[in-house]
Here is the input.
Amino acid sequence: MFSSSKILEVSNLYVQYLTLQGIVKAVDGVSFSVGWGESFAIVGESGSGKSTLAFSVIRLLPENSRIVNGKILLYPENIDLVKLPEEEMRKIRGRRIGMIFQDPMTFLNPVMRIGDQIAEAIIYHQKCSPTEAKRKAVKLLEKLRIPDASDVVNRYPHQLSGGMKQRVVIAMAISCNPQLLIADEPTTALDVTVQAEVLELLKNLINEYNMSLILVTHDLGIVAEICDRVAIMYAGKIMEIGDVYRLYKNPKHPYTIGLLNAVPTIYKSKNEIAGIKGSPPNLINPPIGCRFHPRCPYVFDKCKIYEPPLIEISKSNYVACWLVG
Here is the structure.
């Protein structure tokens, strides 16, 4: 199921949250891999576990969470990030794995100048002087097409627009030339025009630095724009993985079909856009069998009893559905 030239391999990963109501099974037996230079998307509704999966890779989960089982292997050394001591993990965050967070205003420190925030990781990982780090920060902002970059480094986050803040977060993520970049809903808070500009920048940076990308999103339009492969996630599990063009043209899982039918396009009339009936399940007590069966229009008895395995239907394309099996 994994590509031959991997930078990251997630194998049988289980992540849970301990809450007053019970144990939330946020990621439940997930496996996938990302190749060198590949752009890989994780798509699903809110609460599907996609952000938890991304944050598990860099071990930035909340205190009430725990990785119960599984491996997260970083290549070429086969380092298991699950077992890595926190001190060693700090050397990998930023240096080998960069992270673009969803809300730049929450991520950026409001009382630190932009240049100091970008320079912080450069000083820590590259052991250079503050002056040299700040010079590199200016160059990064210029690369991200921020005008008057030498002035912007001396500003505070509240003095920048939403699009500029997001570019600053991208600059921080790529400041140490990471091999793998994780982007968690990087354009959610931006208007459509700025969103397109940020996506174009991101695509160009990935090609220029030859980085691998894990893009976490609910927007299938973004995926088509920037990614090579996509994993469709629902209720803590992966329902389908495949080449982005094949999956868009010929989706196999009923959930994937439902997601694509819900996407408005210039070719669809208002009546042709259909939502998925029902709501995602409670992950404290998820459904037995296929987790999508309470909402599936094609459900039959087997779906309610047995959980379908993720099976290969063609090269590098996998589906977890009894209809396909």
Summary: The first strand starts at residue 6 and ends at 18. Residues 192-209 form the longest helix (18 residues). The chain has a mean pLDDT of 92. The chain has two domains: 6-96+180-274, 107-177.
